Amino acid sequence: MWTNWTSVRKVKEGETTNDLYAFLTTEANSEVGAIHPKAMPVILTTPEEVETWLTAPADEALKLQRPLPDSTLRIVARGVKEDSA
User: Known InterPro entries for this protein (predicted)?
Assistant: First the structure.
């Protein structure tokens, strides 16, 4: 989900319009929990889940707000993030 948002984020810059993003989270599964124990993004994994999310009544769509089963995700890199200068 995203929207344009106009506000003053930094006094030096004054009022700016920026893209503001949000995502839905749920409890962490074992892979994500090892890195961030409180939450993980909700991930839709099939076209049927996407269709449910976009078209179903809220009570049905929100049943998709659940962690992926353990061992569904795979950590492919570890280490400290380094930004180039």
Answer: SRAP, SRAP-like
C-beta separation of 64 from 42 below 8 A: yes
- The model carries a pTM of 0.67
Instruction: Work out the widest C-alpha separation in the chain, in whole angstroms.
Output: 48
Tokens representing 44? 């839709």
Q: Pick from 74, 76, 73: which is nearest to 45 by CA?
A: 73
Q: What is the pLDDT of residues 18-57, one digit of tens each?
A: 999 989 999 999 999 988 999 999 999 999 999 999 999 9
Answer for the pair 21, 1: CB distance below 8 angstroms, yes or no: yes
- Residues 41/25, Cβ–Cβ less than 8 Å: yes
Q: Give the separation between CA 61 and CA 57, rounded to whole angstroms.
A: 6
